Amino acid sequence: MAEITRIRTHAIRLPLRRPFVTAVRSVTALDAVIVCVGDADGRTGWGEAAVSWRVTGESAASVDAVTAGPLSESLRGLPADDPSVWGPALAAAVVHNTAAKAAVDAALWDIAAQTAGLPVHRLLDAESTSTVHTDITVSAAEEDAVLRAAAEHVADGFDVVKVKLGRDADRDDATLRALRRSAPAHIRIRVDANQGWSADEAIRLIRGWEDDDLGVELVEQPTAAADIAALARVTHATATPILADEALWGLRDLHEIARMGAADLVNVKLAKCGGISPARELIAPAQAAGMRVLVGSMLESVVGVTAAAHLAATLPGRVHDLDAGLWQRSAPVHGGARYERDRVELGDAAGFGILALREDLS
Ligand SMILES: [Mg+2]
């Protein structure tokens, strides 16, 4: 047993290949915090805290403060290889601050798996596979820009395209129809409205797509996060699978969504629920309630995506939502998950296989 000895943060800014635009924000660079946890035997574990005032409500400064304060105080001296000890301590150390907690949780799973000599996904589930499939996101934009971006991704080998809509229902309808007309028939189209529609708008659009047999694979978070009743109304009034994202942060949300039959699927993100350990506590009850689970991420670098992909590897046979690491011009670390077209390859290194922060960032 090696004790947790230190937790460090590195705030980084990485330019994006193209602007990331949703119904709630537009950014040209990724701001994130990389978290390193060390144990007494010299191992280092890696995690990432996604920071966005509009999405997670956390900042580089808040992650730094909560990590140096209550998280370090609660965790230092505990056995780094025992999630049953540090998991509850991390959860109880501070309320909210889920992105910061997710980063520390990931780093500790990294150390636990290095100690066991296994990739993290194998420590989580001996049956897991080391390849995870992902969709690719197309930013909210004018119709011609959406079609152009989608065509580039299709040419690059992606089969599942997730288009960000939710800014104006009528324009969204036209964009989706144009995308379906222009994309090859085998391309699966997902829609993410990022809370942008009323329930009535969502029902009108989705029923129209169903009537015209456009084959939309799923619609993500059509309505406001806090209004579970609206989400339930859309789910009950349409046949297209509805995916809850912003509506689901923790177990209380999940129970409410399940009780109301408000969604067909849930998008589990480490930054919302606080890490791999709390994410696993969401997966079993979601599945027991008949909902399928997809693993997604915030706009994050490959460090955050690596942790999410190791969890996703325990849920095989589905296309997850883990393209975020493709958006930066370059990765902040050496090692970690590797993209091969629409696949995230986890490799067979112990832990996450992350070796070091890029020299110019450390
Ligand atoms: Mg979403």
TrEMBL record:
Its EC number is 5.1.1.-. Keywords: Isomerase, Magnesium, Metal-binding. InterPro entries: Dipeptide_epimerase, Enolase-like_C_sf, Enolase-like_N, Enolase_C-like, Mandelate_racemase_C, Mandelate_racemase_N_dom. Gene3D superfamilies: Enolase-like C-terminal domain, Enolase-like, N-terminal domain. It is an enzyme of class 5 (isomerase). Its cofactor is Mg(2+). Residues 143-241 form the Mandelate racemase/muconate lactonizing enzyme C-terminal domain. The keyword Isomerase applies. The keyword Metal-binding applies. Binds 1 Mg(2+) ion per subunit. Pfam families: MR_MLE_C (PF13378), MR_MLE_N (PF02746). Belongs to the mandelate racemase/muconate lactonizing enzyme family. This is Dipeptide epimerase. The lineage of its organism: Bacteria, Bacillati, Actinomycetota, Actinomycetes, Micrococcales.
